[in-house]
Design goal:
The complex is a heterodimer of chains A (819) and B (592). Chain A has 13 helices and 45 strands. Chain A is an alpha+beta fold and 819 residues long. Chain A has three domains: 264 residues, 7-stranded beta/alpha barrel; 233 residues, Beta-galactosidase, Chain A, domain 5 (Distorted Sandwich), CATH 2.70.98.30; 79 residues, Immunoglobulin-like, CATH 2.60.40. With 592 residues, chain B is of the alpha+beta class. Chain B is 39% helix and 16% strand. Chain B has a five-stranded antiparallel β-sheet, with no helix packed on it. Chain B has a four-stranded antiparallel β-sheet with strand order 1-8-7-6. In chain B, helix 7 packs antiparallel against helix 8, helix 7 runs parallel beside helix 10 and helix 10 runs parallel beside helix 13. The two termini of chain B are 14 Å apart. Classes of the chains: A alpha+beta (819), B alpha+beta (592). Strand 45 of chain A pairs parallel with strand 20 of chain B.
Chain lengths: 819, 592
């Protein structure tokens, strides 16, 4: 029997929490110094530390200390673990973020230490999504250390050591810390060791004992090290300095029959997926924008002489990765820290904005938009409105997704007619603009854009004489407060402002089993910011009362019903936008919220029996029971009963509950910043979601199981909108409509299209299966002279690296760089 | 149980290679103009880089593209996605890959390359016709006294240059599988055409021959104790230096000098071989003029043979023995003797050395060794299957049931099966390899035999569930192959689990109508991604159709990034790969 107790010296370091990052950085420097000194003093001691970003701080600020650490790593005395930039929240970053966490960190470790981390290590992260085994193994890690939820929070998850499988077939050997990752002091050590001894005895395999002062850093103290030494001298022979890498290797040498877990690991801090909406919104936006901008940068670098911006994107992604640290993204840090987060995310998104704009304008310049008779290449004869009354103006619309998208886009001027590049009229509508200047009108029109491509549309200014033309047909109808398009028919209740009926026109089925979209205010006075020990937010204080409801737009391209609900001094404005050709009802929200210790939820209820809720998680989907627990999710959640369902898609939210047939999106959670049962003495507290909040969600009714619908593509479209760029008139080498990639199956999504980090010029494509359906796919990308077949298992992520000759290697998140 | 899937007639490639001076090659081919195709915006991945295409020809509705590394067939209207683009390459389809010109011949094509010409004909044939063609090839060229594994050639791609000998380490395993395929065929014909139909009669003849050859291996050592030989040679066949061979002489057999026998220090060591053999079986060599003293049998037999033999016992008894009582008696007595051997020797196959053979070990001692720790999950399941089959075909319990109960109640052998994947993953961590890198592809057939047998025969629901779990623990590994020989038993055993039947249909449609090995050009294909694993092994990211990848038996990773067929380029292999799967599918009503 292996009853070894592996001493894992560590220091839990929160770079931001109850302090700002500057203090966290200092804490890292001091802890690393201390750890190096202790290693020198105590023979055999090994120090384990995660988070590449900390090492980078030390390298930049104290290169001498960093050099000492490098030597210790080489000797095996210092063991970097967790090939990620920080210990992130493990529910809210999307799959591409996890790829970037691994990419930048493992390559950093490889460059500095000559090896990558073999063990994933998120000892404090509050929950662990079900796809993590794949996200870890694709980053080079086969083993994992975690702690939360604790046994008292979820006793179904195996104790100690177990295999953890994700639905794609990946597997990691996982160690669940029983009590604490930062034991220190004689009493704690005695208690923990006694427990671990029992566990080793019962399980038949060794255990890990994590010790060292933590949270604000610190690490192993001399007192504790002396005490451990004393225990060993007194005959406690099972104690040995070790590291997680060594531990896993050691236990795998022996007889090891441990259980298998094939689910997510929740819940510890159920409030963390809704607290501090701002950071969530920034995260979603930054993830999508960076992925999209980098795709366009890659395209344009292949089409033109514009250079690859790989380093700039790396810098931007590292900011995003840093801000995915669990105490940051979970919204439970101090208010001041979020000023820093906003700046940091702003920096990242500005890189995305600049590179995307550069790429799109450059690509647009290659598109042949010349019209005979145009005298000026750019006809801006009236300030910024680019008006030319004699000719339509080209607008080029870009789609970053790997399948064709049909969606409405808008431009900053009104139009009299809109056609596509083949001269076909398309639906458009002049709508009230956000400005109160000039015409006050924008054009909204239906654009259809091919996969990772663009399409050119021609817009005649509203003042143009366009003559007779056959208008595109619209299926939109508005009858009082009932609106419909090709796919759905929605009826609003004039008393409550909610939705009383949603008909899926494909089969005529009524989807709703109760009124939807009447915002509910929930009591949030009991939970702390994390909502420790509270897993349901179900104490309804009231519903918001309707102040007004009216149809504010009723055109051929879209109908907009505007509602205003009020509660005390707060209000929520919702624009329900039903677009022609849209499969969902888009809802644009503006909430001025000033209700302390409240939660705002948006419920929808389906009819039928045996409801099941389904959610998007990083790199996959998950089905959960409808028991009312607050659940983390990415861009959508769904409730389906008896084959009829409705999904809520969101552009920035991460928290839902499903109670029976009712699915609720948690819109706002107004907690005290970093509040942890402090008895709340009177203070002028600041609240996490106080003030103006702007966000969007959408309702997607459907028949059948949600995974058999277009939900994933619709949610991606909702979060990655088409971008319209007004162009000039010019000759060009590119046609007016073009796709840069073809992927044969719609359930495959291009996550990333970038240059390889090694500067070789190779291009990296990362593709994932989204619907849980294995496929053999054809992937063709003439831009890089590549065309290849690939098998995908359900929810599998594959990363391909294409060289200059178009030959393809399958790698993992690390792009084949570490050999 | 299953809604039968209709396998339709499907095109199959027949490539005939000619020398440049062969008068059969049309002159127009030499005069054909090489027009470079315009492939800009071509909607599918192409096997060659676009710049490497040198010529094209439209042949009816089909377009053929020639490149400096092979030929591409494009059928935009193909019903099945995998048939839209097909690739033809050297050496199997072409004399070399450097295509100079193409000439249409209906929808087929003549191909002129640097060193020769090929006529590529796509014939529409049924899956059953393919099975017939393959059987004829095996019976004519591969058969070695009823054994069906492979034979070597002196000239690549020339079946007329076949050598009269050629054995495999696992002749017993492959022949038993071939026999099962032919037994299924016989049973299907009997059911569908009647016992007296000429096709049924012919099927029985082939089934009997392979069955007798398999059974003979279980007697050929002359030890009389149930020991099974891997294979055997006759005196005029060269003894290969790849294992332990014993030459019979009277009632003694002597270890032949080979590297193996020298390493084991047993050159010339003798063993008893005077036990009676069923006369009916010995006719396989005696009718050819050989005597018992001409026999050189191969020892150190592995669990590969034993596992396939036991599953073979089951179907041979059920489907063939019922029409041939004499044979059935041999099947039953052989099975009992082998089972006795295993039980009486403490769950090993005991070689003449008095010790177990290298791989036929099913005891706890082996399971706690370094190698055996991972193997235990398979071997324990094998052993349990042997017991169930023995009880099933003998109709006896007694000793067999006692041993079975002992293994389950005292040794918990039924708990091992589901741990297979866990233990393999454990090894991948301690030994630092990628899990798929260490899959023993030869073990797939053993696992299938074991769990198929267990799931067919176990009556206890709780135990059956364990066996199904055991089968499922192999699924991620088996599913890499989409091999109907594995997936059909899996479907039958685990009906709650999805298997992609379309992928199986593709396998039947796209398997060549010949097992003549010569290699393909996989390395350098532009349309497949290549993956390098932790230990440096390379495999491709997509499972190519069988007619575009190397030929092997059921013992290789079909994703390997390699050109050469597993038996080399001078070889013709057994048709069992196809016939076993096809006729099993027909027998169990999964295909029609």
């Amino acid at each position: 029997m292996n009853n070894k107790i592996n001493i894992i010296s560590n220091a839990h370091l929160d770079p931001i929490w109850l302090w700002r990052w500057q203090e966290g950085c200092g804490e890292v420097l001091q802890t690393f110094r201390s750890a190096v000194d202790r290693i020198k003093e105590y023979k055999g001691m090994i120090f384990t530390c995660s988070s590449a970003s900390y090492y980078k701080w030390v390298e930049e600020i104290d290169p001498e200390l960093f050099e000492e650490i490098r030597k210790l790593v080489k000797k095996g005395k210092w063991v970097p673990v967790n090939g990620w930039w920080v210990q992130p929240d493990c529910n809210m970053p999307d799959a591409e973020s996890f790829a970037r966490q691994a990419l930048y960190s493992q390559l950093y470790y490889y460059e500095k230490f000559g090896k990558i981390c073999k063990t994933g290590y998120n000892v404090d992260s509050f929950g662990h999504n079900a796809m993590l085994p794949q996200l870890l193994t694709q980053g080079g890690m086969k083993c994992y250390v975690m702690m939360r939820p604790g046994m008292h929070e979820n006793a179904e998850i195996p104790e100690n050591l177990f295999w953890w499988d994700s639905p794609d077939g990946s597997r990691v050997l996982t160690y669940r810390i029983a009590e604490c990752y930062c034991n220190n002091g004689k009493n704690a050590i005695d208690r923990e060791l006694s427990d671990l001894r029992n566990r080793a005895e019962k399980s038949g395999h060794g255990m890990m004992f994590f010790f060292g002062v933590g949270n604000h850093g610190g690490g192993p103290t001399k007192g504790d090290l002396d005490y451990l030494l004393k225990l060993k001298e007194e005959g406690y022979e099972e104690l040995e300095y070790s590291s997680p890498d060594e531990y896993f290797s050691d236990v795998c040498e022996g007889l090891l029959d441990v259980p298998v877990w094939n689910n997510e690991m929740q819940h510890h801090a159920s409030g963390c997926y809704s607290a501090t909406s701002m950071v969530k919104q920034l995260n979603r936006k930054a993830e999508n924008w960076l992925a999209s901008a980098e795709k366009w940068n890659t395209v344009v670098s292949k089409v033109s002489n514009l250079p690859a911006a790989t380093k700039a994107f790396g810098d931007a992604w590292k900011e995003v990765c840093f801000n995915q640290f669990h105490d940051i993204l979970c919204g439970c840090s101090i208010m001041e820290a979020y000023d820093d987060v906003r700046d940091s995310m702003g920096y990242a998104m500005h890189i995305a904005a600049k590179e995307e704009n550069k790429a799109m304008l450059k690509l647009a310049s290659y598109v042949d938009t010349w019209l005979d008779g145009v005298s000026d290449s750019v006809s801006c004869n009236e300030r910024h409105h680019c008006r030319n009354l004699n000719f339509p103006r080209p607008v080029i619309v870009f789609n970053p997704l790997s399948y064709e998208v049909e969606q409405q886009v808008s431009t900053y001027h009104p139009s009299a007619r809109v056609t596509d590049s083949d001269g076909n009229d398309v639906l458009f509508q002049n709508v009230r603009s956000s400005r109160s200047n000039d015409s006050h009108l924008d054009t909204v029109f239906n654009a259809k854009v091919p996969a990772l491509g663009y399409a050119t549309y021609w817009l005649w200014h509203a003042d143009s004489e366009v003559g007779e033309f056959k208008k595109a047909e619209s299926a939109l109808k508005c009858d009082g407060l009932t609106v419909e398009n090709e796919y759905i028919k929605v009826t609003f209740n004039e008393v409550t402002g909610g939705i009383s009926s949603v008909i899926n026109k494909a089969d005529g089925a009524e989807i709703l089993g109760g009124e939807a979209c009447v915002p509910a205010v929930i009591d949030n006075s009991e939970p702390d910011t994390w909502a420790h020990n509270i897993f349901k937010f179900d104490k309804v204080l009231d519903t918001m009362k309707l102040d007004s409801i009216k149809v504010v737009e009723n055109g051929e391209a879209r109908i907009v019903v505007r509602t205003k609900h009020i509660y005390n001094g707060s209000y929520l404005n919702q624009d329900f936008i039903l677009a022609s050709g849209a499969k969902y009802l888009r809802v644009k929200c503006k909430a001025l919220w000033q209700e302390p210790l409240t939660i705002l939820k948006m419920p929808v209820t389906v009819s039928g029996n045996d409801p099941i809720s389904t959610y998007e998680i990083p790199g996959g989907i998950i089905k959960r029971s409808c028991n009312g627990d607050e659940e983390p999710a990415l861009t959508w959640g769904d409730v389906t009963a008896d084959g009829k369902g409705i999904a809520i898609i969101s552009d920035s939210k991460y928290s839902y509950d499903c109670t029976g047939n009712t699915l609720s999106l948690t819109l706002l959670r107004n907690s005290i910043f970093a509040d942890h049962y402090s008895d709340r003495p009177y203070a002028d507290f600041n609240y996490t979601d106080e003030g103006m909040n702007r966000f969007e969600y959408a309702l997607y009714p459907h028949s059948g199981d949600v995974e058999n619908t277009d939900i994933q593509r619709l949610a991606s479209e909702f979060n990655n909108r088409l971008v319209a760029i007004p162009a000039g008139y010019h000759k060009g080498t590119l046609s007016q409509k073009k796709s840069f990639i073809s992927i044969s199956h719609k359930n495959l999504s291009l996550m990333s299209f970038k240059f390889c980090e090694d500067g070789s010029g190779d291009v990296v494509l990362r593709i994932r299966e989204t619907d849980g359906k294995p496929v053999k796919a054809a992937i063709v990308c003439d831009l890089i002279d590549a065309g290849f077949w690939a098998d995908f298992n359900k929810f599998e992520i594959k990363t391909f690296r294409v060289n200059d000759d178009g030959y393809v290697r399958e790698t993992n998140f690390l792009e084949g760089i570490p050999e | 149980m299953f809604k039968p899937y209709k396998l339709k007639d499907h095109i199959c490639r027949f490539c005939k290679i000619h020398s440049l001076d062969d008068s059969a090659v049309p002159k127009a081919l030499f005069d054909a103009e090489a027009v470079k195709p315009d492939l800009a915006g071509f909607p599918y991945p192409l096997p060659s880089k676009k710049s490497e295409y040198t010529c094209f020809v439209k042949a009816g509705n089909i377009e053929w593209f020639g490149a400096s590394n092979g030929v591409t067939r494009y059928d935009a209207a193909a019903e099945r996605p995998e048939d839209i683009i097909m690739y033809f390459s050297a050496d199997r389809d072409l004399p070399d890959n450097n295509v100079k010109a193409l000439l249409a011949d209906g929808e087929n094509v003549w191909v002129l390359t640097e060193t020769g010409a090929t006529h590529i004909e796509m014939k529409l044939i049924s899956a059953e016709e393919k099975a017939d063609i393959l059987r004829e090839e095996s019976e004519k060229y591969v058969d070695r006294r009823g054994m069906k594994t492979q034979k070597y050639l002196t000239e690549a791609r020339n079946l007329d240059s076949i050598l009269p000998y050629g054995h495999s380490d696992n002749d017993g395993c492959f022949t038993a599988t071939y026999a099962m395929g032919e037994i299924f065929r016989y049973s299907v014909y009997k059911r569908e055409k009647g016992i007296d139909h000429p096709d049924t009669v012919l099927a029985k003849k082939y089934a009997l021959r392979a069955t007798e050859a398999t059974l003979l291996l279980m007697h050929i050592s002359g030890r009389g104790d149930g020991f099974v030989a891997r294979t055997y040679l006759c005196a005029d066949e060269p003894v290969p230096d790849d294992g332990l061979f014993m030459r019979r002489n009277g009632d003694k057999a002597y270890a032949v000098e080979t590297t193996c026998s020298k390493e084991w220090g047993c050159v010339g060591a003798e063993a008893y071989c005077g036990a009676e053999m069923p006369e009916r079986l010995t006719r396989l060599y005696r009718d050819l003029g050989y005597t018992d003293d001409d026999i050189i049998f191969k020892g150190d037999t592995s669990s590969d043979e034993i596992s396939t033999h036991f599953l073979f016992f089951k179907f041979a008894h059920d489907l063939l023995g019922c029409d041939d009582p004499e044979l059935d008696e041999i099947i039953i007595s052989t099975c009992k003797r082998l089972m006795n051997h295993i039980i009486d020797n403490g769950y090993i196959l005991k070689d003449f050395t008095g010790k177990s053979t290298t791989w036929a070990k099913w005891n706890e001692e082996y399971f706690t060794s370094e190698f055996g720790y991972v193997d235990a999950c398979l071997n324990a399941s094998e052993l349990l299957m042997y017991h169930l089959v023995t009880m099933d075909i003998t109709g006896e319990e007694g000793k067999w049931l006692e041993s079975y109960n002992y293994l389950i109640n005292e040794k918990h052998y039924d708990d091992y099966g589901p741990k297979h994947f866990d233990r393999l993953m454990q090894a991948s961590i301690s030994m630092e390899f990628d899990y798929p890198e260490d899959i023993m592809y030869g073990d797939h057939m053993l696992a299938v035999c074991s769990f198929f047998g267990l799931c067919l025969l176990e009556k206890d629901e709780a135990r059956l569930e364990k066996y199904r779990k055991g089968f499922k623990s192999w699924r991620s590994s088996l599913a890499r192959e989409h091999n109907p020989g594995y997936d059909l038993p899996y479907m039958i055993s685990c009906p709650d689990h999805d298997v992609d039947v379309e992928a199986l249909a593709t396998w039947f449609y796209r398997t060549n109508a010949s097992r003549l090995a010569s290699g393909v050009s996989l390395i350098g294909r532009h349309d497949v991604a290549v993956k390098t694993q932790l230990m440096g092994n390379k495999e491709i990211s997509v499972l190519l159709p069988p007619d575009e990848r190397f030929i092997s038996k059921y013992d290789r990773n079909p994703l390997y990034y390699k050109n050469e067929d597993s038996g080399g380029v001078m070889c013709v292999e057994s048709a069992y790969v196809y016939s076993y799967a096809y006729w099993m599918g027909r027998y169990f009503g999964i295909f029609e």
